[in-house]
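task queued by scheduler; priority normal; single chain, no ligands, no partner chains; default sampling; output format set to structure tokens
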Amino acid sequence: MTASPGDAPDSMILDTTPDPTVRPPYSGLIQMLPDPRKEAMMEIAITRADHIHARVGDAHRPQCCDPRVGEGLKWTKHFEGWWDRIIDHARARGRKWFTICPEYGSVPYAPADPVTNEALSDPFELAVWAKDRLRAAHG
């Protein structure tokens, strides 16, 4: 019996090509994968990543309301743990530079006030905040 991609273990998907690099939107993995598979998939991604799409999501959406405060800051710290390991792994492989895109979307991608449909945070401010935080951590 042949496994379909939906049934295949995460490692099988990435191991079908020798030394593939990945650039997943990590915030999307939070919703897409069942809990037991998230960390296993990230372990594979950490060793193969050659770019970080630095947006913080949460259990319900690919972009949290505000990664600077409250529940969003808890998710930020979780994502930063992954990103730190990705960068450390790339440096150990001899990478001299690494690309990171701290991108946040606007409404309707971003969470909005249900009455006014106004964004709950400014995407540009979030991107600059994320860039500054990453630069402070990694130079």
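post-processing summary
- The mean pLDDT is 80.
- The two ends are 50 Å apart (CA to CA).
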